[in-house]
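Researcher: Batch entry, complex prediction.
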Amino acid sequence: MINHFCKTPLWEASRTLAAVAGGRQPAETVITGAQLVNVCTSEILPDTGVAISCGRIALVGDVTRCIGPETTVIDAEGQYIAPGFLDGHIHVESSMLTVGQYARAVIPHGTVGIYMDPHEIANVLGLEGVACMAEEAKGTPLKTMITTPSCVPAVPGFEDTGSFIGTEDVAAAMEWDSVVGLGEMMNFPGILSGDGHAHGIVGETLKAGKIPTGHYSLPETEAGLNAYAAAGLRCCHESTRAEDALAKMRLGMYAQLREGSAWHDLHEVAKAITEHRVDTRFACLISDDTHPHTLVEQGHLDHILRRALEEGIDPVTAIQMVTINTAQCFQMDHELGSIAPGKCADIVFLKDLAGMQVTRVLIDGEAVAENGRMTAEIPAYPYPDWARDTMHVGGAVTAETFAVSSQGRERAEVRVIEVIPARVGSYERRAVLEARDGRLSADTGRDILKAAVLERHRKTGTVGRGFVKGFGIRSGAMASTVAHDAHNLLVVGADDGDMALAANTLIGCGGGMTVVRGGRVLGVVPLPVAGLMNADKTAEEMSAAVAALEKAWEEIGCEMVSPFMTMALLSLACLPELRLTNRGLVDCRTFSFVPLLCEPQ
Amino acid sequence: MINHFCKTPLWEASRTLAAVAGGRQPAETVITGAQLVNVCTSEILPDTGVAISCGRIALVGDVTRCIGPETTVIDAEGQYIAPGFLDGHIHVESSMLTVGQYARAVIPHGTVGIYMDPHEIANVLGLEGVACMAEEAKGTPLKTMITTPSCVPAVPGFEDTGSFIGTEDVAAAMEWDSVVGLGEMMNFPGILSGDGHAHGIVGETLKAGKIPTGHYSLPETEAGLNAYAAAGLRCCHESTRAEDALAKMRLGMYAQLREGSAWHDLHEVAKAITEHRVDTRFACLISDDTHPHTLVEQGHLDHILRRALEEGIDPVTAIQMVTINTAQCFQMDHELGSIAPGKCADIVFLKDLAGMQVTRVLIDGEAVAENGRMTAEIPAYPYPDWARDTMHVGGAVTAETFAVSSQGRERAEVRVIEVIPARVGSYERRAVLEARDGRLSADTGRDILKAAVLERHRKTGTVGRGFVKGFGIRSGAMASTVAHDAHNLLVVGADDGDMALAANTLIGCGGGMTVVRGGRVLGVVPLPVAGLMNADKTAEEMSAAVAALEKAWEEIGCEMVSPFMTMALLSLACLPELRLTNRGLVDCRTFSFVPLLCEPQ
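Model: Structure tokens for the complex:
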């Protein structure tokens, strides 16, 4: 892997670095008086200096001889310095921010690099959409390593997406400068069964000398996990039990321990480390999905480090898990992940290790954040019109769009998706609904709402309809274009008219999330970039907008925490038991379409 | 780094591996009932099985379901299995064997892969010679990863070699399939001073995404070592003190702890690990130079592992230092260095960990050695005639060739190189010699011998002449074409006539080492391939031949252990204090030629 993520290639900088280390040329910047968190040897070394030029580290040790009249001297005053934090698996889209805003939000928390799997935008806009994010990333100091989305669509044949990524597309994307690997291979059933497409995509990655990343969410750690690892999948963030993580490490896979906004795995999986005296080089900490309020209220990898400490992981070990281990996972440790000569000068200052409070961040030797605020400018990136024009719903949406026929019956038994708060699974339930005028409606008395998924990419006009329970709303409707993974227009409501209003609100603003009641819009979070992200609002602004939307949810009776996240999974047709796509109800245990109305007994 | 060192690329094997792991297709081979040395987690896992197909590991765990009627079942009977050993820095030429014979010698000791720096042959035959060794290696099971020699000649301007390797040559060699990096960059003064050629060669390696390996032999671990590391040199085997090794690990360099036939560094450098509680992932064990008698009497990496244990290193940690750490150093850990699904099935069986006794070796899933003996055939490789015809000495060699004029003086003070047994350094001494017939001769009474280096690559006829002490011989002469690094024809003796006989003996047999006395050849080790290696004799045969030669040395009065090794460094003009090349005496402290006769006071 040659470097594309540093200010200066090492081969252009090395003579300068040698001169700086040798005291023949002053450094551009030096750090003095730091306690070095040495992730190579897992030690804390007192009173250490770092000399920097060309965006790289020239010397670690006594920097006296490297200081000239023009040298910027940063006195660490005994603070700790650690390598910049790397997030080994992250979907930027989950933050509802584009890369520029995301970078602004995470860099002050010590994040200097992310391994980004942009599979949400890829479902809407394909690799062209990914290219936009890559282009935007270039304008930020955040090192944005792309893993090419592997599973677009997530469940072929069961939904309509805006794009399809085939083996050839993956092969072509491996040529991109910014692509370092393959995004999470969610199609583990395909890998296990020897599916040619799944293996082909991984194979193209291996042929390019890049890193295939994994997603293996079964609790089975023998035949299945071995088969998955044997295919070359190098890491996996789907461990929810300590034994899952331990099994992966033992099989030479990087166990990426996750602490996302919604998925709090660390409490359990940290035990793989704290309860076993194992070498931890194959353990990493990652976020996967982080929502704007988490970024604003808790932070990013600094927060996850604090969580790791709470779970009993040693601070230096924890820091290795977001630095050198991650860099070694991606075979980029010659550039990133340690404070060592020749490496990029990506350095985080920490007030203490117990609190992991980040006070300063250098990227490529430049101070980019101080005391929780960006000090570097990130220019606005103008997403092209086609990336902001993705609401292609076929035909007008009216109350009629949401009508469900009783098929001539007076009452009908229907399948109902029951969501489970803060869990990704769902249950298939049954309910008998009384028909009125030949139609079946929501029954808020029993917390049964209507749901619909309107294809929004190619104006096919296809609509999947169903019923859901578990949200608890009494009236009104909600809609969202964040509807995994096809990101069609998902609408849930108590009333067909309000459902139409919710849908049309999002069609009007280019996508996003909304709550309406009685013909009035109570809240809306516009996500005009691909219907997934907002390029114009900061994390703070988005957090406030989402908080307002959550208040609107409350207003119509929902007591769930972050209900929009649970709602967004209603359409994710690879998770059991029952899901709804634009093509209809999918039984995700048997991977087959099932009718909404059950056959009369 | 894509793989060239495995039987089947992973992308061709992955579907089969998934089928084997899943129990849908029987494995080709399984191992049952082993104690797994898990180098990923640093654990020993009891009663473990391994399923193998396509030369790769399909499953680690319970192999019951992977066994079919055709499956070869190897019952480990409770023995340990570890990943095949990798030697991260080795000059095959030092064994006096070509790669085929070397492979035969080391594989039964558990070595499955070597990172070979063929800089001896490169000095004689250039990259064409390296290509021969690479070609021979392909016929062996030994994974022979080449690091392209970086310093040919070792000391430009001070000696004449058979070849010159420039920046463009290095760039071209980086395209070779078998090249994984750059050989030890011995020109650390050039790196430290910012020399364009030295940095250029490293730069070409980095541009190719390959690994520059180091050689930094100064005791200075601040400015110099930082400058060296900052240039991208990723590892170094030249630590002789624990603090050297520790400093390198702290700077993110792989400290390759050496235990060669002649250089017994481990006793000191192991303390970097045993006396400091550091993460050991940046520590490796390597051999550098291994002579045939060591291979025969002691072994290879198994011997070095035993030595590591004697120095107090934990067995699993030591095994990591010849497996996963080495693979990670070369960013080849996705293929080599662990017993894990998808990796090459390179597996060593060990009777116990205390003795590191290797009982069986699999490479790419094939049993290649058992109980100390090769079971796989290695075909003979016919080195081309030009590689066996390298004695190009200008003009006839006679006693006159070795005459040293007293420059008209009756007595003259001369510079004398004093060798130090079992050390690589030498001292500059002075001695006054009486002239006879206008010439200066050896004075065995004071252990002063004559030495000469005859250029043998391009018939230039250049001869460097000098005096040496420390060998203690009373009569006769010795000659060698193993004379670092230019490998010219080095002759040392008490008598000019015997010196001529020694030289002509080697010219006659295509190079090697010989001892003569009184017009009679007492012993000769023919090394016809480049004057460095013998392709036809086994390690046992070469060991016996060298033993016979050592006996001849004894016979003429030398009590030194392996004197030919000490002699071979007489011409290595990059080590202090005084050396002799075909161009004359070199003061290696000031890097200048000095006259043999001192100016009269």
